[in-house]
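Lecture notes, part 5. Sequence design as translation. It can be helpful to think of inverse folding as translation between two languages: the language of shapes and the language of residues. The source text, in structure tokens, appears below.
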């Protein structure tokens, strides 16, 4: 069969179905379902490392068992490995596996960072890039603040010059004093045919 134990495409890692098959036939762990599960998981743990991943990157497991009545034993064995990781998991009963001696088969999927944690050089470069980007963002924010301040100052200067020019040309709006308000009020013309308020009607009543 032309297949790989694990394949990585970008951050995605898929680990092929893994059993406790022994090289000389049969299964490691014999008829012990839990024992076969532990052996399959041991191989699962080693597989992602071959493509630059780790156990902590596993996000899902699929477990195929020939006897679902033994699910508790299988679940406990998985818990021994993934107790601190808690991947999504499925357990399915199947009629048989590729060898009658095999009782359990496990698959796993993992998602790893584009910059693996086990690559110090890549992590150092990533940290330097983050520091550089942080500095660039800070400079951009500072420039934005300066531009806003300059625009506000420019607007104040233009407004001040405009007010000064209006005052020189007499276009400024005079501010009435409290004593001159009534005297300076415009004399509105009386409607045609009406009697001015300051005069009294004469003639016969």
């Amino acid at each position: 069969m032309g297949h790989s134990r694990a394949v990585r495409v970008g951050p995605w890692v898929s680990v092929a179905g893994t059993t406790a098959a022994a090289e000389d036939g049969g299964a490691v762990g014999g008829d012990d379902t839990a024992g076969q599960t532990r052996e399959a998981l041991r191989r699962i743990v080693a597989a992602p490392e071959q493509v630059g991943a780790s156990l902590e990157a596993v996000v899902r497991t699929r477990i195929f068992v020939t006897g679902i009545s033994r699910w508790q034993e299988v679940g406990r064995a998985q818990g021994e490995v993934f107790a601190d990781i808690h991947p999504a998991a499925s357990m399915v009963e199947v009629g048989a596996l590729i060898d009658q001696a095999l009782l359990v088969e496990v698959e796993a999927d993992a998602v790893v960072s584009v910059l693996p944690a086990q690559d110090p050089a890549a992590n150092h470069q990533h940290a330097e890039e983050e520091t550089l980007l942080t500095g660039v963002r800070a400079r951009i924010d500072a420039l934005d603040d300066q531009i806003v301040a300059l625009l506000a100052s420019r607007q104040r200067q233009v407004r001040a010059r405009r007010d000064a020019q209006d005052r020189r040309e007499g276009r400024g709006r005079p501010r009435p004093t409290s004593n001159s308000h009534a005297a300076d009020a415009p004399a509105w013309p009386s409607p045609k045919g009406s009697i001015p308020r300051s005069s009294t009607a004469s003639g016969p009543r």
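The translated text above is only one of many valid answers, since several sequences can fold into similar shapes. The radius of gyration is 43 Å.
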